[in-house]
TrEMBL record:
It comes from the Bacteria. It comes from Trebonia kvetii. The chain crosses the membrane at residues 20-38, 44-61. This is Uncharacterized protein. Keywords: Membrane, Transmembrane, Transmembrane helix.
């Protein structure tokens, strides 16, 4: 059981890391891309890079906002 907990803790730390908001935004972006691709038949490959870039910019803004 200890190994299973350690394995789960590793993946949580690897995927979520320091900021769960970014991980959540990436998951939402992946879901939106999948929905647009399969349900609406839209070639939505461009959506995920935009979401990742926006999540990174938002995270950097939050991290550096108190330094002004």
């Amino acid at each position: 059981m200890r190994h299973i907990k350690a394995f789960g803790a590793f993946w949580y730390d690897f995927i979520v890391g320091d900021d769960w908001h970014v991980a959540a935004l990436v998951v939402i972006g992946m879901a939106a891309t999948a929905i647009l691709t399969h349900a609406a038949k839209v070639n939505a490959w461009w959506l995920l890079p935009i979401v990742v870039f926006a999540a990174l910019a938002w995270s950097l803004h939050r991290a550096t906002a108190h330094r002004k």
